[in-house]
């Protein structure tokens, strides 16, 4: 049975946004700013100079708020300790009421694997890895691969691949590009887009995680007189690109069954979020589940007095079999929830629990 642990502070997801020049990274970031559902987005752009996006008056007008590197190669410009300085600036207690998610927009020449390693190596306990998003230009995909063979590797390690500019090539050519990208991406979710319009809910929770204090979000700044935000996050049928599954279970989950489910999660399943209870295996704590792509983490916290001991999980992905996933997850419930648990049953879960003193050293999922 797990021992009581010091609770970790509420953590801010850090999303790495990569892709070659012209693929649509900045367009995607601007889209997230306009359609974040009130989420306050901080950004680390180009030279890793941190800026607080909500402090700007107009979305996407970065202007003098950032300085470009001469070679544009972010992963060669700083080390993990320097990145920590920028993350600390955005997540320190005095700034946290203005930041719900951080996006690192890499230059077109950066090595995304190194950026991901730097985030995972961060010693900042206030952040959690939010996934690698690789933006691909559907029109120039094959030509870019010929000029930059490393693109195949970038796609292969991504948690989400956005095939942008899907409207600019014939349907037959698009399907061929999609098939090739899916072959390279393995289990990662692959989503075609126009103007990089990915529903932000695919990447992060589209609502502030804390009470509104201080700075406005871009949604506030661009709100029309009738109170509605500029544009509609549902424009272009953004939800049609992915499916979601919600499961609620009153019976505690079997930790071994849940780990078997998580270790074999199918391709296209991008995010898993929520919390679970393991009954007698750990009667004191519920476990928050955070999975994005290949990354997985559990965070225990005590059940509140009188809190219903339910397990609630949401799964989000592209091209997933929602009914099958719901059935498989429900099947993780314990057969005899009130019996004494095998002392070894939690070992698989505890591998992915981050101790407060081990920030930055958590393993990735076996599904890697």
Report what the structure shows:
The longest helix has 15 residues, at 171-185. By secondary structure, the protein is of the alpha/beta class. The protein is globular and about 60 Å long. Mean pLDDT is 77; it is low at 1-7, 53-74, 209-240 and 357-368. The strands form two sheets. The protein has a seven-stranded mixed beta sheet with strand order 3-2-4-1-5-6-7, sandwiched between helices. The protein has a five-stranded antiparallel beta sheet with strand order 8-12-9-10-11, with helices on one face. It contains eleven helices and twelve strands. The protein has helices at 25-34, 74-77, 80-91, 112-120, 141-147, 150-157, 171-185, 218-221, 255-263, 322-330, 347-350, and strands at 12-18, 41-45, 49-52, 101-105, 127-137, 160-164, 189-192, 243-249, 269-277, 285-292, 295-302, 311-317. Helix 7 (171-185) links the parallel strand 6 and strand 7 (189-192).
Strand order of the largest sheet: 3-2-4-1-5-6-7
Discrete helix count = 11
**Low-pLDDT sequence parts:** 1-7, 53-74, 209-240, 357-368
**What is the string of SSEs from the N terminus onward?**
EHEEHHEHEHHEHEHEHEEEEHH
> Span between N and C termini?
27 Å
Rg, Å, rounded: 21 Å
Please report the total strand number as a whole number: 12
Q: What's the gist of this structure?
A:
The protein is of the alpha/beta class and 368 residues long.
How are the elements arranged and paired?
Layout: E1 12-18, H1 25-34, E2 41-45, E3 49-52, H2 74-77, H3 80-91, E4 101-105, H4 112-120, E5 127-137, H5 141-147, H6 150-157, E6 160-164, H7 171-185, E7 189-192, H8 218-221, E8 243-249, H9 255-263, E9 269-277, E10 285-292, E11 295-302, E12 311-317, H10 322-330, H11 347-350
């Amino acid at each position: 049975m797990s021992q009581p642990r010091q609770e970790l502070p509420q953590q801010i997801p850090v999303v790495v946004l990569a892709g070659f020049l012209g693929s649509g990274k900045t367009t995607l970031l601007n889209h997230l700013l306009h359609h974040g559902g009130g989420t306050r987005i901080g950004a680390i752009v180009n030279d890793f100079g941190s800026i607080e996006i909500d402090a700007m008056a107009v979305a996407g007008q970065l202007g003098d708020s950032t300085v470009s590197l001469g070679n544009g190669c972010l992963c060669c410009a700083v080390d993990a300790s320097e990145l920590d300085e920028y993350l600390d600036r955005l997540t320190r207690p005095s700034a946290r009421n203005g930041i719900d998610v951080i996006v690192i927009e890499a230059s077109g020449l950066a090595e995304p694997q190194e950026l991901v390693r730097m985030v995972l190596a961060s010693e900042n306990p206030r952040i959690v890895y939010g996934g690698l998003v690789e933006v691909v230009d559907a029109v120039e995909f094959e030509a870019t691969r010929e000029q930059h063979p490393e693109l195949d590797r970038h796609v292969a390690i991504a948690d989400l691949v956005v095939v942008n500019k899907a409207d600019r090539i014939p349907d037959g050519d698009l399907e061929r590009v999609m098939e090739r990208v899916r072959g390279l991406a393995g289990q990662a979710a692959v989503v075609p887009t126009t103007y990089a319009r990915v529903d932000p809910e695919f990447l992060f929770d589209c609502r502030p995680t804390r009470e509104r204090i201080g700075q406005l979000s871009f949604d506030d700044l661009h709100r029309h007189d009738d109170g509605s935000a500029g544009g509609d996050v549902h424009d272009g049928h953004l939800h049609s690109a992915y499916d979601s599954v919600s499961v609620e279970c009153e019976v505690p989950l079997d930790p071994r069954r849940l780990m078997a489910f998580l270790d074999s999660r199918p391709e296209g399943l991008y995010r898993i979020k929520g919390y679970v209870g393991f009954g007698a295996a750990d009667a004191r704590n519920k476990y928050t589940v955070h999975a994005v792509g290949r990354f997985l983490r559990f965070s225990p916290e005590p059940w509140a007095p009188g809190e219903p001991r339910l397990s609630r999980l949401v799964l989000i992905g592209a091209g997933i079999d929602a009914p099958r996933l719901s059935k498989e997850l429900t099947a993780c419930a314990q057969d005899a929830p009130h019996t004494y648990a095998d002392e070894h049953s939690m070992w698989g879960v505890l591998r992915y629990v981050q101790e407060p003193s081990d920030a930055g050293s958590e393993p990735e999922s076996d599904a890697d």
